[in-house]
TrEMBL record:
InterPro entries: Bact_Kbp, LysM, LysM_dom_sf. This is LysM peptidoglycan-binding domain-containing protein. PANTHER family: PHAGE-LIKE ELEMENT PBSX PROTEIN XKDP, POTASSIUM BINDING PROTEIN KBP. Pfam families: LysM. PROSITE patterns: LYSM. Residues 160-210 form the LysM domain. It comes from Paenibacillus campinasensis. It comes from the Bacteria.
Amino acid sequence: MEFVLKSGKGKEFLFPVNPEEVTISRQKGYETATVLTFGEFDFPQGDKIKEISFSSFFPKAFDDSYCKGSKDTHPKPQTAMNMLNQFLVSQTPLQFIITETAVNVPVFVASHQTTFRGGENGDVYFDLTLRTWREMKVARTDSATGINKNPRVDLKEKNKSYTVKQGDSLSKIAKLELGDSSKWSQIYKLNRQVIGNNPNAIRPGQKLVLP
């Protein structure tokens, strides 16, 4: 069993140590109204957002007796904390998966609490709360069949595009748009059919897809 968070850009985060327990909170929404002298009445509404919470830790050293993944891919505690912080401020939903179970849902990271314990140098403990996400939309149904016509939600983020300007090069575009000129090869790989066999032969007006 593995606990995984995936971003819309395909970035995957594997929790190195499985939590001992996971709490999934489900509630039904109610609206309470007071009717004259008859008192209060509850009117059921739609389901409330579900919360998924668990606690675990990021060990400084990899131990194959309880750690997931491999020693080569084992994240440093500070790196793992930074990743969760990035997820916390993300404006797009993530996919949360617990393998070997039915849990595979879009979520937002609602809260992330970190604890450092004396005597356990380097290990970082955390409490995490996720809130399930669903797209807000009005369902459309086929008038003849009554079947819901809404498409399945796609969490993948669409790639950005860039229109080549006079004096541009792939390394210049990579530096301006991706912050790293060495990523020019990634741009070329995505746009080889447009550019051709020579990566230096880009022309003004060409529309390139960015990674």
